[in-house]
Amino acid sequence: MLTTILGLIGFIISFFEFRRGRALGYCAHLWARLILFFSGINYSVRGLHHLESNKSYIFAGNHASEIDILLAFAGLPFWIVSIAKIELRSIPVLGWVMRAAGHIFVDRNRKSQSIESLKMAKESLINMPRSVLLFPEGTRTKNGLLNQFKRGGLLLGIEANIPIVPIAFINTFAMVDKNSLTLRNHSIELRIGKPIINDHNDYESKRGIANHVQKEVQYLIDN
Length: 223
Description:
alpha/beta; Glycerol-3-phosphate (1)-acyltransferase; 7-stranded mixed sheet; 7 strands
């Protein structure tokens, strides 16, 4: 109910704002904070001082559970969108709201369409700056360990000249496993690293970006 109400409010407001989708970004931030509050989930955020409130970022982190999305939207006071599978675009209400909020849809089953979608996303982010939430592992971890990062979405940071920020979700894996809806009582934390600024759009930067970001996320998890 909360999701529907806030989504529809933001959707309606978006028709009257200059930067369409920004209101929905604020609604998503409020939505996540309220869900965590009413669920009795204690969370903390560390490292916000690394970021500037008037900038956009590519946030890239580990994916331990669905709680990660809530924690990211609650803990990061930015207009954040996600890179979502194309199927979500057709879902009534959810698809409308995500499109209005500026989320990026990618057809993961067809490589050519996926590449074209990312090209369009780059132009969209340049014309209307906003932050992007990425899970470069591609799927949730099955054992709590960090999986190999893929560079696909991270290339947006290089090509659109947007700083990439490593983030780590702590204790979210311990709250719920991949096939369960039962939450365990654990305090969770969002750790934010220093932005990685790519000044050179060259081959070496593109090839090594996934490994570099993965190492930074692992450092945050361990420390």
